[in-house]
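This follows on from our talk about sequence and fold. I would like you to pick a protein and set down its sequence and fold. Go ahead and set the record down below:
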Amino acid sequence: MKNSLMMIAVLLFAAVFSTANTGPGPGEEERQLWELIKNTKDIQELDVYLETYPKGTWVKKAREKKWTIVKSEQSIKQIEAYVRRHPKSPYLTDAEDTIWQLVKNQESIPVFQDYIKNYPRSRYRKEAETQILRIEEKNKWQVVKKTNTIDQLRRYIRKNPNSRFVNEAENMLWFLVKNSNDIELLNEFIQNFPGTRHAYLAEEVIWKTVEAINSIEVLQDFLRQSPDNRFRGLAKVKLIRLQKRAETLQLSETLILDQITRLIWQRNDLGRAPWEEAKRICSKSRLHDWDDWRLPLKDELRSLFNIKHLLPDFTFTNYWTSVTYQKDEFGAWMVEYKLPLGNVDYKKHRHHVLCVRDSE
């Protein structure tokens, strides 16, 4: 009897258990809900699952998916809202990292300041402070860079020797100084940046400038101010030759006598005139009672231009020559400061008249 009752109890339990597993119970509903939302991108749908089944089978995956969606939005406000709502979330460190990266990408001083204020204990606080300094340094440099003047660049380099922009500032300063052709500025640059590649190049630029000026006084100043300059040998030879060439010139208030070319030039031109009139002006000139004044040839004018450095008070401009252009009788050759090899212009145009005569 007792054994029969035990058997019936087992069968009834089995029947009840079988019915529970085949009907639409809570386990099946959870599975259906998860299948419905497992690929969703809607946080609200995930919240429905988490609120309905706080200890459900797929809670971990639902939380992970929710954080992935919040993070993908790249919104500081949404991430902060997530942190407030889930203070014990396993993704808090990732949230902090993501917020910092979003703040950092904005490169804004006010944004960094707000971050420090809102997260005073953040492990990125020092980096935020450093970013503020870097932006302030960059802004200061941008102002100087936009101004792009020698004074501003020198002041910036002097006051910010450790700036990450100091090399760029030195390069910009060198470009301006190099193209100034100002010997004083170049010497000052060498003094401020001794031993640098730019200082080495500055010496070369100074010498080329001195050489181009081709003046006795400038060469003497160069040797006096830079006695150890690597171009001092060239400067000394150049000076000797200029001094000897100067000795071949005799100057007065009205005349220039060149003993090498044996030409006598009038010290001042006689105004501007068309070519035919220019010829007449010279032929009628009676300076020092000489009656053989004439317009110069091309080569004669070039020879005068070649010694312009020895005539500091002489104004060089565009002058007529006496030579008619062979291909067009209405044109004549002229020589000017910027075109010392000569240029052709119509005879009807007006150019300066400079007269010359042979000394013998």
About this structure: Confidence is low (pLDDT under 50) at residues 1-25. Strands lie at 249-251, 255-258, 263-266, 272-273, 319-324, 331-335, 343-346, 351-352, 356-358. Residues 125-147 form the longest helix (23 residues). The two ends are 165 Å apart (CA to CA).
